[in-house]
Amino acid sequence: MPLDWYHPNLREADRLHLDGIAQYLIDDETVQRQAAANPMGNFGVQFPQHFQSAVVDRLAGAEAFSFELLDNQDLSEQVMSA
To answer: Are 2 and 21 a contacting pair, CB within 8 Å?
Structure first.
């Protein structure tokens, strides 16, 4: 079922956030090893914990980066001029 069915007001920024979570999971070496070593059914049991951890880690990372943008005028100017 498409994600829009569950959350019809999903904005592009939300989709980008989900893409970031997905990329975080793809880049996670533990997730890669477990996915390679287990059949889909077994990995599916482990995946919700990985997903939840990725959501929390990305939230913390976004918060830290947001504060850095607020606190670092040079960085903010560089981002705004890009």
So the answer is: no
In the chain, where the domains are located: 11-81
DSSP secondary structure letters along 25-38: HHH-HHHHHHHHHS
Question: How many angstroms separate the CA atoms of 52 and 58, rounded?
Answer: 10
Mean pLDDT of 36-57: 95
- pTM, two decimals, is 0.79
pLDDT in tens, 19-39: 999 999 999 999 999 999 999
Separate counts of helices (H) and strands (E) for the chain: 5, 0
